Amino acid sequence: MVVLAASVRQQLLMFRRNPEQLMALVNAPLLTLAFLAIMRHAERPDLEAYAILGPAVITVWSMALLVSGELIDGERANGTLDAMIAAPAPIGLTVLGRGATVTAVSMLSLLESVLVARVAFGVGIGVEHPLLFTATLLAMALAMAGTAVVMAAVFVLHRSARIFQNSLSYPFYLLGGAVIPPEFLPHWLQPVTKVIFLSWATDLLRDCLRPEAVENVAPRLGMVLLLGAVGFAAGILLLNSVLRRVRRTGEVSLA
Question: Of 15, 28, 27, 100, nearest to 64 (Cα)?
Fold first, then answer.
């Protein structure tokens, strides 16, 4: 808990020193305007709620990519990556704490989207199952924080994380069902979405907007948490393997 609390404070301090890390929160209202304009032009009022949720999901994913990549690149650029790895505090917990902080902050994008939709288009978002909606957001945040550890483990092997950040953004927006439900994707691609926790989370969030009873709540919510836990466990194993390698070769700052 001490390590997690310290990592949370560290990330909040990083936000103050590098406010550009919050750029995704600036993009969220713009995405909301664009998506809602498309739905209005297509005369699909039934999809307007999806256009409000979409920017929030995109922001959560993009900010997690940012922190996991920039954490390693930033420490390497400052010459403190070696000290971070040598410190007694588990680096996996440090990444988890900072990732959880960024994910929590990124959730503000949902409030931004709701506000922009109300002011610009007079559109609201009715949540018919608020308890499940809140539980799904929490599960998605936990899974995203765990996934950030996997990203950090991959990024530590490369001099620049920017390539991975760019390549892991838009494909996951589609596969995760950020705006378009996975069932609208080609049939051969739909099974791939089942191994991405975002697709389970976004489906649940959409179902929470409908008055009908949500089916299979426990299994679907469990899949979000399970995939996040699997990602965290895989990230810890990979990160430990990577750290043993760079300690043995002395290539931490040159990886």
Answer: 100
